Amino acid sequence: MEKNITCPLTEEKVKSLKVGDSVLISGTIYTARDAAHKRLIKLIEEGKELPIDIKDSIIYYAGPTPEKPGNIIGSVGPTTSYRMDSFTPMLLDKGLRGMIGKGLRSKEVIESIKKNRGIYFAAIGGAAAIIAKCVKKVEVVAYEDLDSEAIRKLEVKDFPVIVVIDSEGNNLYEIGKKNYLNFNSSEI
């Protein structure tokens, strides 16, 4: 089922999304990868304010390529999410509501998603140039020295994702594997 949501990503919106849903996201999301996550966690541990408001926000694990002339952003495909797993529970505890990436998440992240009523979306790897067309505005908001890994504020319209882990911990990767292993081609 395809659903449209607009950020901020409130708890009520998250509850309405179920594993396997196709979602089109509009509004503000942030890009951040592991180097930026490490800095965010250091600020939290030091009791300092974060450079972005993560409450009810979505972080997209991406590092855009340089934009071509006439474009506002280059290709912006998802990064493998497990690289952020050691940082994610603390960010979810601080109010982060959603994440976009690709690949499996750790048991600790899944438990934190459930505890904090968060959600994990997958973006389609290999579709980075198409995804870039959903970005309407981009601004570097923190850690410019990290170049492509700087935190960017993206204004997006109809950014396509799939719910991979919903707020109840249902995991599309596990469900898909189970369905595949239980598939009986003789029933076709």
From TrEMBL:
Q: What SUPFAM superfamilies does the annotation carry?
A: FumA C-terminal domain-like
Q: Name one Pfam family in it.
A: Fumerase_C
Identify the taxonomic lineage of the organism of origin.
Bacteria, Bacillati, Bacillota, Clostridia, Eubacteriales
The record's PANTHER family line, in alphabetical order, gives: L(+)-TARTRATE DEHYDRATASE SUBUNIT BETA, L(+)-TARTRATE DEHYDRATASE SUBUNIT BETA-RELATED
Family membership: Belongs to the class-I fumarase family.
GO molecular function terms attached to this record: fumarate hydratase activity
- Name of the protein in its database record: FumB
Q: What is its EC number?
A: 4.2.1.2
